[in-house]
Amino acid sequence: MNVPKHVAIIMDGNGRWAEKRGLKRSMGHLEGSKTLEKLAIHAIDMGVSILSVYAFSTDNFKRDEEEVKYLMDLVVKYFNTKFEKINKKGVRVIVSGRKENLRSDVVEAINNIEEKTKNNTAGILNICLNYGGQEEIIDGAIKLAEDIKNGLDVRNFKREDFYSYLYHSLPPIDLLIRTGGELRVSNFMLYQMSYSEFYFTNTLFPDFDKSEFNKAIFMYENRDRRFGGINEKKSS
Ligand code: IPE
Ligand code: IPE
Ligand code: MG
Predict the structure, then answer these.
(1) Comparing C-alpha atoms, which of 142, 207, 131, 206 is closest to residue 170?
(2) Residue 60 CA: which ligand 2 atom is closest?
């Protein structure tokens, strides 16, 4: 089986999931967090090494204060108590994004979960929080500029070399999934998705269960990745 090593999910559709049921949007986020917990464990069971998920974008601060507060409270609760199953499974949790304008209890919860799971080796769950793809590239470019100022020779600098300037030096994304029906990437991991296979589904994130995830994996296994070259088997 050709399982993707790095899978990324734009977890969209929580709000609509709740609105469809006459519930507050926050209930969709709560349900989405339960879905994430189950999916993270399932992905590792399927042989995925890294699961990156888009939990909160830099642009999501444009939302109502109440919704932002609910999401941040949820993050604190999950990191401090609910991620025990994920930890027991041996998954290392890392968080990508800018910490500057996050609440201090959120930063503390991030540090706790990263510290608690740092020696886990079964797989990586990368949670993108206050994250922007262009911001990640800018932050990396600033670090690179500092290194150049300190004498780094960049005459042979290659695109592979830039990964070490990104938040956690994660490898390229093999499979990018977006739930919720929108056909866009909304400033997600732009550098890492240059040759990703895309899977878009109308399923709202809270409903994106194991069997929905397996459909995406199955689709991936049947894609022909050429990376600009020619697949010998199919050319004539
Ligand atoms: C995704 O769901 C989760 C976050 C952006 C935090 P949305 O909240 O965007 O849900 P919809 O797109 O409004 O349904
Ligand atoms: C992308 O979803 C961000 C997350 C899933 C966290 P949005 O709902 O914020 O994206 P747009 O506004 O539809 O592009
Ligand atoms: Mg949305």
Answers:
(1) 131
(2) 9
Q: How far from the centroid of its chain's Cα atoms is residue 120's Cα?
A: 18
Count of C-beta atoms within a 10 Å radius of residue 50: 22
**Fold that domain 6-133+171-225 belongs to in CATH:** Undecaprenyl pyrophosphate synthetase (3.40.1180)
Q: Which residue of the set 59, 60, 150, 222 is catalytic?
A: 60
Domain residue ranges in the chain: 6-133+171-225
pLDDT at 234: 55
Interacting residues of 158 by C-beta distance below 8 A, sequence separation 6+? none
* pLDDT 10s digits, 184-208: 999 999 999 999 999 999 999 999 9
pLDDT digits (tens, 9 = 90+) for 225-235: 999 999 876 54
Q: Which residues pair with residue 53 across a beta bridge? A: 9, 127
Rounded to an integer, what distance in angstroms lies between the CA atom of residue 3 and that of residue 218?
A: 9
Give pTM, 2 decimals. Answer: 0.97
The ligand 2 atom nearest the CA atom of 205 = 5
